[in-house]
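Hi V.,

You were right to ask for the full record rather than a summary. Here it is.
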Amino acid sequence: MEPYGALAQTRQIGKASTGARRKLGRPSSFIFKKVPGQSNELLQEEPQQTRCHGARQEQPRRFTADQEMGHQNPYRLHHLQASVAVPRRRRIKCDEGAPSCKKCISTGRECEGYSNGAVAVAAAAYTTGAAAAAGLLAVYNQPMPTVAPAGVDASHAERGAFAMLRGECVRRMAGLFSASFWTVDVMRATHVYPAIWHAGLALATMHRATCITAQTAHARASRQRHEAFALAQFHAAVLAVLRLTRKPVLTDADKEAILLASTLFTGLCCLQENYEQASRHANGGNRLYWQWEYWKRGAAAADEDGEDGDEDGDATCTGQDYRVDNQGLRRAGCVLTTKSLTAVFTHFEMQFCSRFRTTENPEWRWCDRAHRCSAAPFASAADAYTELQPLLTGYCHMGRYLSVPRDVAELAPVWRTVDAYVRELRAWQLKFDDLLARRRRRRRRPASDDDDDDEEHHHILSLQLLWMVLETCLGHSEESGEMIWDERTADMERVTAFAETHFAARCRPGAPRVFTFSFAMSICEMLTFVGTNCRDGGIRRRLITLLHGWRERDGMMPARLLALIVHSVMVLEENATTGMQAPHDACVCVPGSLICNHHRVCLIDTQFLGERSATIVLTTAGMLEMKLPPYETSVSW
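Predicted structure:
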């Protein structure tokens, strides 16, 4: 089905002769009524209610003579009835998800959509002050109409693309924990910021193009048509962002629009499988996120944090520089909560530090302090994930920093920060256990929404798997080193069995694809982390099987590429003594049983080459110590 529905076609019912129209001499939209004791005369106009493309509009109905007209000449009556026949639109079942008409119009005119007060609200929302807060509240509580931001004259095709964004696209891209980001945050922003309006339409149309997989001529033409429209919307979004950047001073609303636009550009490139460009968009937005300190509530919060500093001496945030509770806060005049973009950008950065070594990630961002876990209890799995993601990203940065050999004096303050992260992660675990206990009590009650409960249960299982993976590395210390992973083999076996039990069904060939892209954490990333750190060949091969069969497409890295990364690491380490790696004097490798510390991969870099191809660059501890070039292999999927 084409996403841009054509205007409803009209059909002519009967024909009117020119002579008959001259004899009638009255507009065809009026009817005669017989009043007792009076002759036939024009009394009133009676419009008939018709339904046209989702709207209830007025349409003149066909002239019908009353019974008294039966006394007239039948020949004249026939011409009279034919002469007043008017065009009538074909009746179309109302679909609130489709673009809607404001008035019944003739063929050839474009539908202008419903008139709605949200346009004025959107204009007010872009200002600051109390009026902006009231306007934003009105936008939040309204159902989502097809209303473009102030200053944007949306075409019929754009309204059709927005209906697709609001309906199909947000459901397919919601992922595990970012449903509210798509269904609430992005939808709000499209009514306020022109850049987000155009970027959202480009994303929705490109998503629809990727769903057209047939190889017929009609399908190829439709796909090209969608891609051309998406490209035009992308250019319009870029121009809107450039207009914002030319301002002498950027407001918080301007910064919010730029950051959200960069995330949507990242998703658009991922749908095109242009992962190199996607990483550039994500990295650029991530740098602005840190430069503007967007996780803070604003300048007042920044001053407060600067005064508090780190006086408690435990490397934990003492100011309100992240959030005060798990509901999140909004900056003045902004639409989004700080927590939504914080979760998105920290997830981007975690992917960078794990698999994009060449991407610049200043270490000072995470080496000085840890995010504080809030005191408020979790209301849902999404709340738990949103608070965990920044902690997880910081902890992954610590792991990457410690994987490179460094001086003891340089590592001392880093281990202090690692201890602070572990304390906050343990605090998160207590809150998550409380959420699980409340869910168990609630599930004993007979009345519950089965669909919502099943979805929440899947989210809980994903978080449980994530915590099981994270728990395997919380016991690391300055003395443990890289060989500590060998002591975690039993835990990694338990993680693999848990994934096979609860998620293997989603990897079968006939399994439905729940979504096609998401900014939130995916199961694949957890399995990849275990596969690259586990040195048990059997467990690794089971994980590769799960990743290779994963049908969902979430995050910036496709599942098959992640499977190839794990496979490349496994092949390099298992063949350390067969010539793939340089020999080392301190090597104690036992083929098929033990991989020594010098021949273990400690850094992974992914360099995209083109469509579905990349170069995987692997560096071992021995290569770093002896200053040898890394191992490179090209893969395609």
